[in-house]
Amino acid sequence: PVLVVDFGAQYAQLIARRVREANVYSEIVPHDISAAEVAAKNPVGIVLSGGPSSVYEEGAPALDSGILELGVPVMGICYGFQVMAQALGGTVEKTGAREYGATDMSVDGEGGGELLGDQPDAQTVWMSHGDSVTAAPEGFDVLASTASTPVAAFASPTRGLYGVQWHPEVKHTTYGQGVIENFLHRAAGIPADWNPGNVIADQVAAIRAQVGTGRVLCALSGGVDSAVAAALVHKAVGDQLVCVLVDHGLLREGEREQVENDYVDSIGVRLITVDAREQFLSALDGVTDPEQKRKIIGREFIRTFERAQAELVAEAAAEGDPIRFLVQGTLYPDVVESGGGAGTANIKSHHNVGGLPDDVEFELVEPLRTLFKDEVRAIGRELGVPEVIVSRQPFPGPGLGIRIVGAVTAERLAILRQADLIVRQELTGAGLDQDIWQCPVVLLADVRSVGVQGDGRTYGHPIVLRPVSSEDAMTADWTRLPYDLLARISNRITNEVADVNRVVLDVTSKPPGTIEWE
Ligand code: XMP
């Protein structure tokens, strides 16, 4: 793999994704990894990420400089560039010249070398730094500069060491992906031969090796991750897998049917649906506090799943073939964020599928542990998972329960479901599904406003549209949807959905607003 050394912030994941977009497999490792540990992973290249610190700060994340002596090509980015400069005897200083955001950069030196040689001489890059490299280490060529940063990129091709001050991994750096690809393919000579599809065969073999002839259980949520994980496991072990769908009544229009019909038809998995709608509604009766709702929904989910599981486990045991494995759609970002690297999973509980019982003694099967969301989608398509599920935008486990501001009732759920369907139809119809991250539709059930419809006064509820653009849901901006589309959505909702007489647009970024309203 290419190892991405994580110096903090969100940069490492972004870099790892960009490396994979260049068709090279990447893994993230913590910055305190030793040179020996790095060597043991047999990397073909190493990228040092950016980070929030200054190399001079007390406790600033350091690097085992032996990593630079392994003979493996290394590229430092931003903080990683500075760490590299410092480790090799260059100078890093607080010059007072801070650069944040879009910055003009020019490629100098011997035509930019392998890293920048094919790039425009003048370009805009995205910067975020307070310290600057003022002198490159001995033997390094300076490749680029900006008005206030004389050493914005350097290279020592003979040692296989490269660095850039800017962030090539962010989309605001126009030619950023080119820099990453130049490092990988030209400087380090790594072939572009990895793609998420390759993962299928490996995972199928790994799943077979892990579960043998054992039986496997999987909770389907209607979302992408569990659907793709189950499809992979099914490909590996067929009917040793049983899936359970808990219908908590908080799903959107058509979601249960998409799993029960389209998914089952195309993948061929054995599915049991548990209808728990009444149970959830009565547990949520009168509850308005969002965290309380989440707790209740999580708890009821566990109870329901446990009941179904107990029945299935008993049935399987009676047949002399116990269920010992549980599939989880854990993705790479979850693994990285929980500090886990390559460790194998034999965990008691995890809270991905809405929370699992504390005393499950299952061994987890997590075939998506090394993958990012877009890769999971690509694999899902290859496995034949229906497009409606594969391209589904993120939807929270507590579902519509946390999109009704106020108490959850069957009537309110019906209103919201109808409004949400209209929004989804219109966004899809306008071809905008790829442009938005997700678009929560929220019913302000405890708010009423006066309206006029036909020749009568109405006193109805507002529906909030919350379209957001994001790369990872950690930060988001509100999506500038076309006015005519907004007008159509508004017209349709106010005309077609009873008790709704107003549609409002949420124009708040995250932060300060979260994506969901509750
Ligand atoms: P927020 O509202 O925190 O949402 O900006 C970030 C992302 O997380 C989803 N979300 C949840 N997902 N259980 C989930 O499984 C939850 O309780 C939950 N709350 C928010 C949200 O849809 C968005 O994608």
Mind explaining what this structure looks like?
This is GMP synthase [glutamine-hydrolyzing]. Its EC number is 6.3.5.2. It catalyses: XMP + L-glutamine + ATP + H2O = GMP + L-glutamate + AMP + diphosphate + 2 H(+). Strand 9 and strand 10 form a beta hairpin. The protein starts with a strand and ends in a 13-residue tail after the last strand. Helix 6 packs across helix 7, helix 6 packs across helix 12 and helix 14 (410-429) packs antiparallel against helix 15. It has helices at 11-21, 35-40, 79-87, 113-116, 176-187, 196-211, 224-237, 255-267, 277-283, 290-318, 332-337, 373-383, 387-390, 410-429, 483-496; strands spanning 2-6, 26-30, 45-48, 74-77, 91-93, 99-107, 122-129, 132-135, 141-146, 153-156, 161-164, 215-220, 241-247, 270-275, 323-327, 363-365, 404-405, 441-444, 449-453, 456-465, 468-469, 477-478, 500-505. The protein is of the alpha/beta class and 518 residues long. The radius of gyration is 26 Å and the shape is globular. The protein has three domains: 2-187, 3-Layer(aba) Sandwich (Rossmann fold); 196-390, HUPs (Rossmann fold), CATH 3.40.50.620; 410-505, GMP Synthetase, Chain A, domain 3. Helices cover 34% and strands 22% of the residues. It has a nine-stranded mixed β-sheet, sandwiched between helices. The chain has a five-stranded parallel β-sheet with strand order 14-13-12-15-16, sandwiched between helices. Strands 17, 18, 19, 20 and 23 form a five-stranded mixed β-sheet that branches. It contains 15 helices and 23 strands. The longest helix has 29 residues, at 290-318. Bound molecules: xanthosine-5'-monophosphate.
